[in-house]
Amino acid sequence: RCIFTSEYTAAHLEITECLHADAGLYTITLENKLGSTTGTINLKSNVMIRAGTTLRLPAHITGRPPPYVKWTKDDGTPNKDRVAIEGEGKESVLIVKNITRKDEGKYQVIAANSSGTKSAWTRVEVYGNKNLLVLIICLNYVVYFIMLF
């Protein structure tokens, strides 16, 4: 799933069929006789998903008394025509079927009870037909990160 190639002026890291397990910090250092350059990208904070697939954001929620659970998109109420929320026991899942770029944004789950409020969020990015991430770093001391759509 990971393909690394290098050309005269650039290096490419391709991760096909990205999974949550691929999240993390990626660093690359390129060197030549003129010096070196290093670039880093953090893939931990975002969910990246291919257009046309189903987004599932699960949350495990506990508390006493059992908390009230609310999901938001971009700090507002999610579009009920596009978003379904399923909950059973301590699990809550936000689901978007046939996801499009209009569904991109910040998704947040909020749990509240008489003891307080807790929340967690992630940013969702939707790709075109390719589920491919490309990292390009050029040796002219300019760092580029490019995602193919």
UniProtKB/TrEMBL annotation:
Residues 38-125 form the Ig-like domain. GO terms for molecular function: structural constituent of muscle. PROSITE patterns: IG_LIKE. Keywords: Immunoglobulin domain, Membrane, Transmembrane, Transmembrane helix. Signal peptide: none annotated. The chain crosses the membrane at residues 132-148. One of its GO terms (biological process) is sarcomere organization. GO terms for cellular component: M band. The keyword Transmembrane helix applies. The keyword Disulfide bond does not apply. It holds the Pfam family I-set. This is Ig-like domain-containing protein.
